[in-house]
């Protein structure tokens, strides 16, 4: 008789595992010193690359002591105004060994200049440096709002960086074409693919036309272009989107640019999964959203991300704490090291479902891309593309409002037990004293440097800008001399001027259809004594995230109101003057950067000084314990992302106007 215990299944042979992707957390806040401590802690926890978040003054070219930086210093990232800050930021992190990603666009050349200068002071040559500057200004015009200069000078700065890196920093990715924020602004997968590829084409065509890169080095330039994408909750569609991106980029690099080496035609991308879909209501649901969205950029080996950074579960509430970022890092580590994902070839090769959806996206994205190129390219078609994005976002917003698009915990399954993750301490709050500390810091820096050397460097920077010389040598020289972010940007503002991007609101009015509630408000507005309300929608400060303000403006126009919306980055003084001159019935302020306690009281003070007594409402990412302080300051109502029913919100606006007119 055979002993059954002797017949064990033979173990399968161990499979060779692929190397995991770079694991990053997008972080930075308060000061360079505080951020350095955070980076070193995250690296010790197993993070394998840095991803630096800069504050809004740094991104838009202002020093901490500039009046326009009020309330914004250190809030959504780290302030870096001079070489001393870069030195503090990277203290103990060897520049020749670290792979550093810097989310910076309008001031990308300056931050790269500081990064190079910091490495050189440590004896590290620029040829050793590895990393990425995001440096995609088109998506700033379309969605994120941290632009400074007009399109053509901005393109020239990108070209200069690419040409300089090609010769002097060959391991650096000088441009990270960023479709991430396009999806955050409402882009469909087709729009996300087409608009970002159009941007890459525009820039590469300009590099080739500049004559700064020898023909033999151009394939390497093409290979240095990387992408930064978004992954939403529809992870099957997102997987197909990434496979479509991969196919189209291979086609473009081969056919348009004649790149023969397959390695240089690879679609190399990093990713942060969707923040647009993170909810303030039942924020614990964001954990499973983040995990599922990560699958869209990891399951398909053929189109797998090169680096991943995940948001934290509480980012719809405010800044995440170090523990929250650790949780997001651990999600990546569990997928990479505990599961068997990295032991297999592509899971979807041969799948009829995946191949059909990918082919559909390739065809539609190619058609959309051809349209953009026929319009003159991404830089030329900014106004058209902005209108299309706002319209897409309007359609998405209305689907959520009507319940056609389900968001768990927001418009469905809203019943919930009290969360043990709640409470006032569940987000990080930047100490308001940081601003005064940084003002004193930058003023001390200016007093102790060689100001004659700075003046000479600034003169050379202006000369380079005026003559068309490559901007990078003068930028690095200014960094070594002790120049500041505000001085670099100020010198180029003198030469290039500034830019105000289109809002896209007019193109979206009437697009998404009206919910029942919004239609009722529109009927009520028609019959209002005194005519339709004049509604000023304004964004004070440097916060460029305008998606919410745009949707409020569109909804108000759809409801029959007269809307004044002039776009982003208005000063409190400008807002008060517009409210006075336009004789508005109500003012709506949108702030997502955490600067509401600084800016809102100032806007209120200036409005009253101008004799404007209209009610003021505030919307944005407002922590619950800040709400009473705003109401005490004189705000009539506070709205946050959980107030997604725009019809109800518009009804509130009309109620406030009626009450005010009756006084």
In short:
The chain has 663 residues and is an alpha/beta fold. The chain is 49% helix and 9% strand. The strands form three sheets. It has a five-stranded parallel sheet. A five-stranded parallel sheet has the order 2-3-4-5-6, with helices on one face. A five-stranded parallel sheet has the order 12-11-13-14-15, with helices on both faces.
Written account of the structure:
49% of the residues lie in helices and 9% in strands. The longest helix has 23 residues. Helix 1 packs parallel to helix 3, helix 10 packs across helix 13 and helix 20 runs parallel beside helix 25. The chain is an alpha/beta fold. It has 25 helices and 15 strands. The protein starts with 21 loop residues before the first strand and ends with a helix. The strands form three sheets. A five-stranded parallel beta sheet has the order 1-10-9-8-7.
Relevant terms:
single chain, 663 residues, alpha/beta, 5-stranded parallel sheet, 9% strand
Task: Kindly provide the radius of gyration, computed on alpha-carbon positions and rounded to a whole number of angstroms.
Answer: 25 Å
Main beta sheet, described? 5 strands, parallel
Mean pLDDT: 94
Lateral strand order in the biggest sheet: 1-10-9-8-7
Q: Percent of residues in helical segments?
A: 40-55%
Question: Helix count?
Answer: 25
Question: Tell me, what's the shape?
Answer: globular
Q: Give the distance, in angstroms, between the N- and C-terminal Cα atoms.
A: 101 Å
Percentage of β-strand residues: 5-15%
Structural class: alpha/beta
Number of strands: 15
Give start-end ranges of low-pLDDT stretches: none
